[in-house]
Design a protein that fits this description.
Blueprint (H helix, E strand, L loop, with lengths): L3 H13 L7 H8 L5 H13 L3 E6 L4 H5 L4 E4 L2 H8 L3 H6 L1 H21 L4 E7 L2 E9 L2 E8 L8 H10 L3 E6 L5 H6 L2 H5 L2
Parallel strand pairs: 1-3, 5-6
Antiparallel strand pairs: 1-2, 3-4, 4-5
Length: 195
């Protein structure tokens, strides 16, 4: 490894931006380190293989566009995110944006740990300012998952658009007005994304 400082800063950035889509170019700007996007992609793979932070790829139904997409950063354990934030539990609850990312990252961590065990593949989807938080492929089954930690809107335009394009086997809302976060996290991922 040529740039251990870059790897450490990428890890910190991954924890700070867990649950967010960030291009490699923007990462380089945030890191203020000499490097290139190929090095960042390689270091993100190293962090992923170590079970720390991964970059989810965009789901498109075809492999070519997935590999060229900006990654959605995702921690494998929300304790990494919480520890680096420096916030107490009360402060985290008061910071609605941080709490929302923490809840979404908890769902994502549950999913990426299942993916690391070979049970599924995890992606995100975005198209024309519409987004689905997680797209999970388990064998031939496709599940779209949206996470809401605050007041949920009555419609989910990202989920509607994704369903029209890809016809998933299942759609799932985790959080308010859907499956509770506790229920989602208390059972294996296969329960939610399997046949």
């Amino acid at each position: 490894m040529d740039k251990p400082v870059l790897l450490r800063r990428l890890f910190e950035l991954g924890c700070d931006y867990s649950g967010q889509i960030l291009s490699y170019t923007k990462m380089l700007g945030q890191l203020q380190e000499a490097g290139n996007t190929t090095t960042l992609a390689h270091y993100l793979d190293l962090l992923s293989n170590a079970g720390m932070v991964t970059g989810l790829q965009k789901y498109s139904g075809g492999g070519v566009r997935r590999r060229g997409s900006s990654p959605k950063l995702q921690v494998f354990n929300t304790a990494l995110m919480a520890a680096l934030s420096g916030l107490t539990l009360d402060q985290a609850l008061e910071d609605r944006a941080f709490w929302g990312r923490l809840v979404e990252s908890a769902v994502g961590a549950h999913l990426v740990n299942a993916a690391a065990a070979g049970l599924c593949e995890v992606f995100y989807w975005r198209g024309r300012s519409r987004e689905v938080d997680f797209v999970v492929r388990a064998g031939r089954h496709l599940t779209a998952i949206e996470v809401k930690s605050g007041r949920a809107r009555s419609t989910l335009p990202g989920m509607v658009a994704f369903t029209r394009m890809f016809n998933p086997d299942r759609t799932l809302l985790v959080g308010d007005d859907g499956v509770s976060l506790d229920d989602f996290l208390s059972v294996p991922v296969e329960y939610w994304v399997g046949p």
